[in-house]
Amino acid sequence: MQSLEGPSKIHVIVKYIYISTVYGNVRNASSHKKMTGSLFKNIFKIPALSISKQRGLSNVGVFAMQKRLFASSNDGQMTVREALNAALDEELTRDERVFLIGEEVAQYNGAYKVSKGLLDKFGPKRIIDTPITESGFTGLAIGAALSGLRPICEFMTFNFSMQAIDQVVNSAAKVHYMAGGLVPCPIVFRGPNGSAAGVAAQHSQDYAAWYGAIPGLKVVSPWDSEDAKGLLKSAIRDPNPVVVLENELQYGISFPMSEEAMSPDFLLPIGKAKIIREGKDATVVSYSRTINFCIEAAEKLQADEGISVEIINLRSIRPLDTNTIVNSVKKTNHLISVESGFPHFGVGSEICALAMETEAFDYLDAPVERVTSADVPTPYAQNIEYMSFPNAEVIVKVVKRSLYRKKK
């Protein structure tokens, strides 16, 4: 296997994992009856069932992009889904070592249509469907990375990455260090992260703090279309393992795309945050979907109270852009973090520690505030689910509290 060149290596490993999946004890015996995804359609000649339906995931956003729309035909707008698709397309074209692997990424065009059209363009050697066996295909992808390829390993949701967390944390993140710097592991782990809509406790967790705690991993979390394209392209080109935490509910949202962002050479540096709204009274730090609520809250505070809020889009969880946060606090003297993760040991906790351990502390006029999800498993009921995550109303309340503004 070591002597094989290019993408042909992939199919040797895929064949091995396929055989071990069909005849081995993967998950449990009953799971084999359910494994009727696209990989098995041609082999067993039975109708393929959507894995997302088998696993009880919602269909939010699955059929939202029946036709690919490019920014050139849409007044400089592009959805996050389209931006991710463009990044994959450009990097697969640029480097023949790059391939995409995961459940339903090929024949079904991706559970959320992020990989739409890629199978037709690049073929089954580079866009590879797998059975429901995260530990198996993640280990396969890591082995391919160690052999010189550049895999993009898609999790249908990062909640399922828990099945492969030993592979991600103990293999991908550590092998370069444990090999004395001689064996790099250039791999991307990507997929939707955090809360969606009505998918309950097991499918709604935010893994930014989980993976952000691990030395050897880089972790990014895009918010808009430029983030999605620029960060994913940088992740694919990075020589280190990179976790790309997307959000299902952001996929269908359109954002402006600059002429620079439309270029196939567009990259965003990992480890650099962006100030998306200038302000002078309070600094709000967030990432991914919760930025939507931060913007809504900032506009309300400006209109109702004359409070000027500066919003920092972290983009990168690890490494964290400490300088941008500290410099903003020096200007505003107040700091609030907003995230969809749990309150204990989260990204907000790290930002609080940052404020205590850097010169930002000398500029604070009030304690750092955190806005997080509720400290409970995510409820299924829609009304309670809404109450368990940050929203604009809560952020407004916390910013005013930080500024010692009285309630009206």
From TrEMBL:
It is found in: Mitochondrion. Keywords: Metal-binding, Mitochondrion, Oxidoreductase, Potassium, Pyruvate, Thiamine pyrophosphate, Transit peptide. InterPro entries: PDHB_mito-type (IPR027110), THDP-binding (IPR029061), Transketo_C/PFOR_II (IPR009014), Transketolase-like_Pyr-bd (IPR005475), Transketolase_C (IPR033248). It is an enzyme of class 1 (oxidoreductase). It catalyses: N(6)-[(R)-lipoyl]-L-lysyl-[protein] + pyruvate + H(+) = N(6)-[(R)-S(8)-acetyldihydrolipoyl]-L-lysyl-[protein] + CO2. Its cofactor is thiamine diphosphate. GO terms for molecular function: metal ion binding; pyruvate dehydrogenase (acetyl-transferring) activity. GO terms for cellular component: mitochondrion. Pfam families: Transket_pyr, Transketolase_C. The keyword Cytoplasm does not apply. Its EC number is 1.2.4.1. Residues 78-253 form the Transketolase-like pyrimidine-binding domain. One of its GO terms (biological process) is pyruvate decarboxylation to acetyl-CoA. The keyword Mitochondrion applies. The pyruvate dehydrogenase complex catalyzes the overall conversion of pyruvate to acetyl-CoA and CO2. This is Pyruvate dehydrogenase E1 component subunit beta. It comes from Cetraspora pellucida.
